[in-house]
Design brief:
The chain contains 7 helices and 12 strands. α1 crosses α6. A 6-stranded mixed β-sheet has the order 2-1-3-4-12-11. The longest helix has 20 residues. With 242 residues, the chain is an alpha/beta fold. 29% of the residues lie in helices and 29% in strands.
């Protein structure tokens, strides 16, 4: 099997909550499973590699929304081609919002999105800054949310159901469209949610011609994440059996 190529998009701009580390989580879990993995940071069209197996896009500051959108714009056709081909994409926070139809700001202005995925971000009455717990197809997901907008227009394709926190609003969280996953979960999300990490990694390894099996080293590390999830659930008075 060829080495995995994990794309980290605009890692300096889109790492406000440590989200660029999601690429490192994928690479490390791949190496523990016996695969070679390379992280390729991309800041321009010229830096795009010819083959990509997974793509990570983090969250940035609102003050950089326009600048980030303009940097993402030349990359969107390649991102669209890769998502159509089934390459797994994880986009967090503003990185996800800018790939939608648009971002509505509290002052009434709108940052036009790049239209890669359905839906748009709209202002919340109050900023959401607390633990977020979500029931999903990948198990219970936990993380920290820190966002001023909800997300509408993609209710039929959400990532999961909110057990505690705000998420998209209306008790849903995130977006799942084909191989694209969007979320408000920080942490970074893949370090705190190994089931989600392995879903992405399995898809990437399969595309590269291999079969992913979680390693013993990963299983040992995952027990720490699972214990943290149980503590968070207990603190929020949630059932810990999921």
């Amino acid at each position: 099997m060829r080495a995995l190529t994990i794309l980290s998009v605009l890692p300096e701009l889109l790492d406000t909550n440590g989200d660029a580390a999601n690429a490192r989580v994928l690479a490390q879990r791949a190496r523990w499973a016996g695969f070679e993995a390379t992280i390729v940071p991309v800041r321009s069209l010229e830096e795009l590699p010819s083959k990509v197996d997974a793509i990570v896009i983090g969250s940035g500051n609102d003050s950089d929304l326009l600048a980030t959108r303009d940097l993402l714009a030349p990359l969107v056709n390649a991102l669209r081609a890769w998502t159509t081909a089934g390459v797994p994409v994880l986009a967090v926070g503003t990185g996800w919002e800018l790939l939608s139809w648009g971002v509505e700001l509290a002052d009434g202005s709108v940052v036009e999105g790049l239209g890669l995925v359905a839906g748009r971000a709209v202002p919340l009455a109050e900023r959401a800054t607390d633990d977020l717990v979500v029931e999903s197809a990948f198990g219970r997901l936990v993380g920290f949310e820190n966002h001023a907008r909800s997300y509408v227009g993609a209710e039929a394709s959400v990532l999961g159901r909110v057990l505690s926190g705000v998420g998209n609003g209306a008790k849903t969280e995130g977006l799942r469209m084909g191989s694209f996953l969007g979320t408000h979960l920080h942490g970074p999300v893949l370090a705190r949610n190994p089931g989600l990490a392995d879903h992405i990694l399995s898809a990437a390894v399969t595309r590269a011609g291999g079969v992913y099996v979680r390693s013993e080293r990963a299983a040992a590390v995952d027990s720490i994440a699972e214990a943290a999830t149980a503590v968070a659930a207990s603190a929020l008075s949630l059932d810990t059996d999921s």
